[in-house]
């Protein structure tokens, strides 16, 4: 397979911007820079930037076609935070498309919670809920041994599990070598997550902003955050979600929460909560990550910090040792865009070329705003 050269291109290598340089694709990996030879394809990178393929750290993938389309929007890895029924989980796990899929399978939820009502639409009844600490241990065992999940996901909002159940799930996940991820969309869930010791918390509150004390506690305990600002922005506009939760929702609280976490030193990852949920909400997979990056910049991250949140920092958190950086020997999951996203984060939308494991992927049309449609 001929190598691909991008000459005179700036490179965001997962940590910082360098260039102009040359990048070489050699088979499925990034090769050593050298002078081009006969048969090599040469691409002029003048005025363009190469990035690692982006990682969306919170998705819900509907089907194989949706998963395959993610790479066309430069998202070459996704972390699914709730995949049901089991047949869908197994199909995504076995997929060999251009986008790598990681998953949690069924999240732990409490009977009588908001998610219990929502899960009925996916055919998941109350008999699948976790009711006590013994069922909590069995839940983790089944996810790890039977489903072979990449991490364990729990719904930590109130009304929901007793603290003892959250504690036991985290304890069992650690014992079995799995990372624990908590859904926490309301302020009162965060102290519960801190007491239990979750590794990752996904979402930020709409009802009130995180305090400096909570953010500093998260940083002190090494907790990682996936704010999903795209979803929070959409929920704040939705009368349907207000009817379901009966809580005040102000998107400014979410933005202030991200600022508090950044100031405290909490690692922040990019995730959208992309989902096709019919009447509730729809956030398009792949495309929406560009909007998420812009919202993270609006919340106070620099463009460089934002790109790390979708590349190297995400790869480090989810133990993806072969991607997230533009380095020799890493997977050639690469994106070429017009302009410099470290000067203007919206440049990630101006997609020129995409490669997954060294193979070209047909890029999508300009990404648009990536927001969702809600009722």
Q: What's the short version?
A:
By secondary structure, this protein is an alpha/beta fold. It has 13 helices and 18 strands.
Descriptive overview:
By secondary structure, the chain is an alpha/beta fold. The chain folds into 2 domains: 4-51 and 323-374, Urease, subunit C, domain 1 (Roll); 53-317, TIM Barrel (Alpha-Beta Barrel). It is built from 13 helices and 18 strands. The strands form 4 sheets. Strands 1, 2, 3, 4, 5, 15, 16 and 17 form an 8-stranded mixed sheet that branches. A 4-stranded parallel sheet has the order 9-10-11-12. Strands 6-7-8 form a 3-stranded parallel sheet. A hairpin with a 2-residue loop joins β2 (17-26) and β3 (29-30). α4 (133-146) runs parallel beside α5 (163-175), α5 crosses α6 and α7 (212-220) packs across α10. The radius of gyration is 20 Å and the shape is globular. Residues 370-375 have low confidence and may be disordered. It comes from Apiospora aurea.
The level of helicity is 25-40%
Task: List low-pLDDT spans.
Answer: 370-375
Report the mean per-residue pLDDT as an integer. Answer: 90
CATH architecture of the largest domain: Alpha-Beta Barrel
Oligomer: single chain
Helix/strand/pairing class, anyone? alpha/beta
| CATH superfamily caption of the largest domain | Metal-dependent hydrolases
State the helix count.
13
CATH class of the largest domain: Alpha Beta
- Let me know the number of strands: 18
The major beta sheet can be summarized as: 8 strands, mixed
Protein name: Amidohydrolase-related domain-containing protein
Pfam family, one: Amidohydro_1
InterPro entries: Amidohydro-rel, Metal-dep_hydrolase_composite, Metal_Hydrolase, Metallo-dep_Hydrolase
Domain Amidohydrolase-related: 49-361
């Amino acid at each position: 397979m001929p190598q691909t050269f991008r000459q005179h291109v700036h490179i965001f290598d997962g940590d910082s911007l360098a260039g102009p340089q040359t990048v070489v694709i050699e088979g499925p990996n990034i090769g050593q820079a050298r002078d081009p030879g006969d048969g090599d394809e040469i691409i002029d990178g003048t005025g363009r930037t190469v990035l690692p393929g982006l990682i969306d750290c919170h998705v819900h993938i509907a089907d194989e076609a949706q998963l395959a389309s993610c790479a066309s929007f430069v998202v070459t890895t996704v972390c699914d935070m709730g995949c049901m029924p089991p047949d869908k989980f197994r199909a995504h796990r076995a997929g060999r498309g251009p986008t790598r899929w990681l998953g949690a399978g069924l999240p732990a939820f409490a009977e009588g919670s908001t998610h219990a009502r929502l899960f009925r639409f996916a055919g998941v009844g109350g008999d699948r809920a976790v009711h006590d600490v013994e069922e909590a241990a069995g839940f983790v065992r089944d996810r790890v041994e039977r489903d072979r999940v990449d991490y364990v996901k729990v719904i930590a909002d109130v009304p929901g599990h007793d603290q003892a159940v959250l504690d036991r799930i985290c304890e069992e996940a650690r014992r079995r070598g799995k990372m624990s991820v908590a859904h926490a969309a309301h302020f009162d869930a965060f102290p519960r997550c801190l007491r239990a010791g979750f590794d990752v918390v996904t979402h930020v509150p709409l009802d009130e902003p995180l305090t400096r004390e909570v953010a500093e506690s998260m940083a002190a305990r090494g907790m990682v955050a996936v704010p999903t600002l795209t979803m929070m922005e959409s929920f704040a506009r939705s009368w349907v979600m207000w009817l379901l939760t009966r809580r005040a929702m102000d998107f400014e609280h979410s933005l202030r929460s991200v600022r508090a976490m950044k100031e405290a030193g909490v690692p922040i990852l990019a995730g959208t909560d992309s989902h096709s949920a019919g009447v509730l909400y729809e956030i398009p997979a792949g495309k929406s990550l560009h909007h998420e990056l812009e919202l993270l910049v609006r919340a106070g991250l620099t463009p460089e910090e934002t790109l790390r949140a979708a590349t190297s920092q995400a790869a480090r958190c989810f133990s993806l040792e072969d991607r997230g950086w533009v380095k020799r020997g890493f997977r050639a999951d690469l994106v070429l865009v017009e302009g410099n996203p470290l000067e203007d984060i919206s440049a990630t939308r101006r997609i020129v070329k995409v490669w997954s494991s060294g193979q070209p992927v047909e890029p999508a049309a300009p990404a648009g705003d990536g927001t969702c449609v809600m009722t």
